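Operator note (shift B, R.M.): manual run for Dihydrolipoamide dehydrogenase requested after the automated queue skipped it. Running by hand, logging everything below so the morning shift can see what happened. Input copied straight from the record, untouched. If output looks odd, do not overwrite the archive copy; leave it for review.
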Amino acid sequence: MKSVNVDVAVIGGGTAGLGAYRAAKAHTDSVVMIEGGPYGTTCARVGCMPSKLLIAAAESVHNIEKAPGFGIHPQGDIVINGREVMDRVKRERDRFVGFVLEGVDEIPAEDKLSGYAAFLDDNTLQIDDHTIVHAKRIVIATGSRPAYPAVWDELGDRLIINDDVFNWDDLPQSVAVFGPGVIGLELGQALHRLGVNVKLFGVGGQVGPLTDPTIMAYADKAFKDEFYLDADVKVESMKRIEGEDKVEIQFINHDGELETFIVDYVLAATGRRPNVDKLGIENTTLTLDQRGVPVADHFTLQTSVPSIFIAGDASNQLPLLHEAADQARIAGDNAGRFPNIRAGLRRSKISAVFSDPQIAMVGETYREITQRLGTCGCFETGEVSFENQGRSRVMLRNKGMLHVYGEHGTGRFLGAEMMGPNAEHLAHLLSWAHQNKMTIADMLDMPFYHPVIEEGVRTALRDLNAKLRLGPDMIKHCLDCGPGC
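Run finished. Output pasted below as returned.
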């Protein structure tokens, strides 16, 4: 067994691992990165980038279908070539992965260890059966993986996760998607628009990551108007059809009747779990949360063991690429500079679902605000509907609504939840305002062009300012800036 002594060992070679490695190397040359699987990021391989490629294809079809609304009538039937769709998805996906791997190739070979790491104690790791690593500091950056009920394994190769979708050579005829969260909504709607017979099922009524009941109800109806969605379905049975590459699902439909749905695949989009359960954490003195994940300081990413840090999806905080990158810089920097650790910059929360209309959330969620402030009237909600918003109607994208939350007394902007056109861009503006701790009045002093979708944000802010008793009542028709603002 080979023995290695290093200042910092980083477990994982994805977004968080690569970022932590680079940050630690700024302080010491004695750093190794340990990876048992392929190097690269979930985002580039099976996450945000390939899913957006599939969504882009679906949007192109949808735009053709919407054209008659503008008086434009495409000739002939729309032909969706599934093989060509998936060929582009995989080609571009491989291109994005290639960029990541180019960066990995630049890392010195002696800084990379191949194999799966397991703790022997707080400062010792065993890599498979070939290397013992004695590390003064360790960064856990092992990412996450899809999670689903174990009984579903009986479906064999008819059960897939989002990773599998992007290896398809052609589009299937039918798919049952379980889990109307971020992944389920994005892939379910995209596949539907690409001609796949899709039904999207959930349990408990949750739609996307939303917590505002009004916005969630709007989203639930908007999706149901386009494809079959039951966010709280009762499934009677689900079984592989003997001798066929099909799955039979029997469920109670919206009419209360037993319905049978036979599909090519069951797509499990029922959440993800941090990859910390096979690290031998029981051999450490780490304090764990209720899910078995090491507890870490939000600003330093330091765990209960001072020499161990955690970053990315493995930390069970916000499993998004930009969050993983930020956490990696903080954890890697602190592991490198230890014991003189620093609190890192934690940006305002921002998340998006690339459905149509898009869903986005900024700052504190409705649930977090009500848990913190209760229902004592300490905050108000400003609202706008995009159904009559000028620019949205011009583009025939007039679906959705936005809620913005503000604090009584201070007038400070607390957060927002929305479903609407270009929500990804609206969320960025609002997240910048949130990070700068702006008041609603400060935000209303910012420039708004006409006609743009962002004018809807101003309408919601004006509504909120009036409810906070910090500004005039809303004007029904705004004559100074045109219709639908």
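Quick read of the result: Residues 40 and 264 are 30 Å apart (CA to CA). The domain at 2-145+273-337 is CATH 3.50.50.60 (FAD/NAD(P)-binding domain).
Leaving this for review. - R.M.
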